[in-house]
Amino acid sequence: MKKIKYYVIALMLLSSCDDELEITNPNQQTADAYWATEAQAFAGVNAVYNALITDGTYQRTFPSFNDSRGDDMYGDSPAVYLELGGQFTLPTNAAETQWIWRDHYMLIFRANQVIANVGKMDASVINEEAKRRILGQAYFLRGLAYYNLATTYKAVPVITEPPFDKTEYYPATATEEELWNQVFSDLRNGEEMLPVNFDAVVGPDRGQKGRATKGAAAGLLGKAYLYRKMYTEAEAQFAKFFSGPLQGVYSLVPNYRDNFTTTNENNAESLFEVQFSATGGSVGNWTGEPSANWRQFIALPVAYGMQGKAWSDYQPTQWIYNEYRQERTVDNQVDPRLPATILYYNEAEGNTTAYGAPWPDNIRNQIYPRKYTMEGQGVPFETPETGGMNYRVLRYADILLMYAEVLNELGRTAEAYPYIQQVRSRAKLPDLATVRPNMTIEQMRDQIAHERALEFAIEGQRIHDIIRWGWLYDPAKLAMLKEHDDDFNTWTPGNEYLPIPQSELDNNANLLPNPANK
């Protein structure tokens, strides 16, 4: 499998407009000297992808903070801010909220350079089809960054061009409507410009897996519409996967666990995943400008790994473990997603080893994440760099359940059953139309919430579902969340978001605090 390589050196291409002093670094190309060839255009978009593998994007902090704020995971770490994040009490000066902000805007900055500069290249420099798919990738990646910022911070500045001079270094906070409109616009552009796959394109990206595609943009756009309760628009997007141009492109893989290991990556279920590797390089890819020695590891395996084997910064809640046991399979077995998601000791079910050794006697009553760890893959935990698995940002299972949700919200509840059942059937669960026929809209909402919890536990999804469903502001649902996870006892209105970093507020007078800056 030919995967896109992320280790291209990114160029910080800011043009100086200061007439008093101009110093040119002979070891670094300027914006005027770069962006002159097709090869540089390809290198430039590769550098945008590079920003996906830093601590504040998908390497560790961003996905783990999403997980800990849901009711399926909680912090259990001596690093106090990791626990406070899940308890909705993270201080504004916490480094973690700064890292997420910093690295997502690094992603945006790089995408803006590609859009601005490749967009100006003419046919004498670059093939038109190559230009379109390079721009499409940059639009998708910028749209993804703004989607993540919107769901994490609620309202942030929208920057769509490289800064011309220092007067543009202090952007104002955009309205929520402006921010989401930018997400929609970027993802529409991405969907229009991107190919279904790169198998037959002409260029150095031919056959590469891991690049953004038409399906990735179409699916994320539908998810953005759903988050904003734009159900008609979301229905039109998701329908493309079942009776439109994307019909038959994606399917569920038979083995659920294949979505969370180093085998069968970039498979038929994956719309977009971040490419990680445990090999190569000597410098950790935590943040900053990459070099030729940069590594490309994902740090979730060591953050989530069980006590005594890794850091064990987070653990699943007892509620999500019990939720998997609410329903048996058609052959009277436990839901196979439980052992794929959670590492637990149970002699009757054959779970007596962990990381290739017998379970330690003193922690047999504990449960740990298995999803996004290297457990069962024969990799020792000596350093964080052992994590080589890709992070799945969007899966076809999500398209199926989101489409079911949209159909239900549009009053077409009966039509939602078959899409839910595809996900249930892989888990060998009985026919939903038989065990729970003729559900009302309200009953189906709760059923979909249950199905999503089991399918996407420990995938950074749950907190965003909880927010968009309005559960935190529904007394009955909030009481339920508190029963699921004690962390919700310290939630207060507005703190479902991470606070805008205090350092950003101190440095930028045009930046507004959000509801979590209290």
What is this structure, in a nutshell?
This protein has 518 residues and is mainly α.
Structural class: mainly alpha
Number of strands: 8
Count of alpha/pi helices: 19
Look at the structure and give the mean pLDDT. 92
Summarize the helix and strand pattern as letters. HHHEHHHHHHEHEHHEEEEEHHHHHHH
| CA-based gyration radius | 23 Å
Assembly type: single chain
Uncertain segments are 7-26
Q: What is the share of helical residues? A: 40-55%
| Lateral arrangement of strands in the main beta sheet | 1-3
First-to-last CA distance = 49 Å
The major β-sheet equals:
2 strands, antiparallel
Percentage of β-strand residues: under 5%
Give the CA-based shape.
Answer: globular
Structural account:
This protein is mainly alpha-helical. It contains 19 helices and eight strands. The protein has helices at residues 38-50, 55-59, 61-69, 80-86, 95-118, 128-153, 176-193, 214-227, 231-243, 300-304, 318-324, 337-341, 396-409, 413-426, 432-435, 441-456, 462-469, 475-484, 502-507, and strands spanning 73-75, 270-274, 314-316, 342-343, 353-354, 357-358, 368-369, 391-395. The strands form four sheets. Strands 1-3 form a two-stranded antiparallel sheet. Helix 1 (38-50) runs antiparallel to helix 5 (95-118), helix 5 (95-118) runs antiparallel to helix 6 (128-153) and helix 9 (231-243) crosses helix 13 (396-409). The chain starts with 37 loop residues before the first helix and ends in an 11-residue tail after the last helix.
